[in-house]
Amino acid sequence: MPTSAAEHAVGQGDADGIAARARGLTKAYGSGETTVLALDSVDVAIARGRFTAVMGPSGSGKSTLMHCLAGLDTVSAGQVWLGDTEITGLKDRELTRLRRDRIGFMFQSFNLIPTLSAAENITLPMDIAGQRPDRKWLDQVIDTLGLRDRLKHRPAQLSGGQQQRVACARALASRPELIFADEPTGNLDSRAGLEVLGFLREAVDDLGQTVVMVTHDPSAAAHSDLVLFLADGRIVDEMARPTAEGVLERMKRFDTVRAGSAPGDADAHPRKGDAGVVPPQAGADRAAPPKTDSGADSGTDSAADSGGVTADGGTGHVSHDKD
Ligand SMILES: Nc1ncnc2c1ncn2[C@@H]1O[C@H](COP(=O)(O)OP(=O)(O)OP(=O)(O)O)[C@@H](O)[C@H]1O
């Protein structure tokens, strides 16, 4: 039976079986009247060796939660641990190393380097970090992802699904403790999307990896072991062994609640998804949004220019001080 996040209550001291956790995790953007409370005292524990999906309405804080758990963004209050290591308070350089050594990233734009072959893309973060890939593991990843006969191809010679598989292999190459995937199927047609979800599932089942995936898609979430539902910056529910129908039903309730919420509720801490209102300018306050996957090409170019970025596993991440 899948392990529920709830069974691993935060603060019990026993970190066994927990890949990452947060306590009282709060993230506010901006200040004064324009403050946006993206995360509101979130307690969460991500079970090791499981596939966890994070869902919720637009603006509910999914990406912010992922970025804070991955040390890509600073927190306003609370604590975050990766395994036993508290990452809140770590210096930039320590965080960069920790991300590089212990976390794999997959984004909907794949951030592959166009001039490098698939094989070179897969090992690039490790090459930059001066780490030698574990050949046996790498072979296993490549075979599991069905990339053996595509290794010499450049990204432009690969289909979208194959490119995403390369991105998946890159995230897995260093055998990270935790893989964060932000809408990894967002740019794919449904068949390629299914493929990638299948591979993430296999990464968990066959390779023992831990995956956290942010998604809007109930069918994608149905591939996970546990869905965490976020609303207004809080975890409001979870569902073990989810089905697409079950997740869809649960998501519909957000709409009902939001449609029925008092108009003044959103005023204290306005959020993009509040009260069913998503103003067109909702993202305008995101001077430097934490999403770093704004385009495959720009991402790859900057990645090519900056060793720190690609050493992060293709995050495209440059800075995490964006308030
Ligand atoms: N850099 C930023 N500056 C200001 N506000 C931000 C920033 N990043 C996120 N926010 C706000 O924080 C809230 C949560 O954003 P987040 O991107 O985490 O939501 P999400 O659930 O991932 O949304 P979506 O599903 O639309 O991607 C939103 O109201 C958003 O506008």
TrEMBL record:
* Pfam families per UniProt: ABC_tran
Q: What is the protein name given in its UniProt record?
A: ABC transporter ATP-binding protein
Which residues belong to the signal peptide in this entry? none
* Keywords for the protein's UniProt record, in alphabetical order: ATP-binding, Nucleotide-binding, Transport
Q: Which PANTHER family match?
A: ABC TRANSPORTER RELATED, IMPORT ATP-BINDING PROTEIN
Q: Which InterPro entries match?
A: AAA+_ATPase, ABC_transporter-like_ATP-bd, ABC_transpr_LolD-like, MacB-like_ATP-bd, P-loop_NTPase
| GO MF term set | ATP binding
Enumerate the residue ranges of region (Disordered): 258-323
Q: Which residue range or ranges hold the ABC transporter domain?
A: 20-257
